Every structure is written in C-alpha cells, then in structure tokens.
Amino acid sequence: MEKLIRCRDLGVNCDFEACGETGEEALKTAVDHARAIHGLKDISEKDLMRAKESIQDAFCIPKGGYNPGGGGLG
Questions:
Q1: Is the pLDDT at 28 greater than 90, yes or no?
Q2: 23-52 burial code (b ≥16 CB/10 A, e <16)
C-alpha cells in the first residue's frame, strides 16, 4: 500500500498531498514541496519527525492524487 503525507495534517493551509510507494518517497516529495512552494529552506529534525509520524496508508492515483475510497476513477 502506498503512503501519503498531507500539508493540512501538519497544520499548513495547503491542499498538497505527497504520495509515494514508500514513506521515504512520500517524505522526499513533501520536503521538496515545502522548499519550493512554502519557501522552507531548513527543515528541522523535529518537523521531519512530525512529517514521518503523519504518514498514512493510501491508495494513490496518477499524478500524486489521492482516492480515499480506493476505487477506480470514472
């Protein structure tokens, strides 16, 4: 099962969802997003731990989307 991190779950007013085949992949995508979009240059170990703790199982759909029902599209 894929892994998901949401900006909103970390207290950020943003609809971005980072999805990956592993927690590490989702975390890398989330960190890249935080740097590029939210302007975070240095991410503390504390914030990385919070992000890791927020990782949840998900069924991802193409292009990083998330389908909470786990079913097909359309």
A1: yes
A2: beebbebbbebbeeeeeeeeeeeeeeeebe
The helix (H) or strand (E) run that includes residue 14 is: none
Which DSSP letter does residue 21 get?
S
Provide the 3-class DSSP secondary structure of residue 13.
coil
Q: Tell me the HSE value of 61 on the side-chain side, using a 13 A CA sphere.
A: 10
SS3 57: strand
pTM exceeds 0.90, yes or no = no
Angle value at C-alpha 43, between 48 and 51, nearest 5 degrees: 25
Q: What are the phi and psi torsion angles at 50 (to 5°)?
A: -60, -40
Upper half-sphere CA count for residue 46 (Cβ side, 13 Å): 0
Q: What single-letter amino acid sits at 23?
A: G
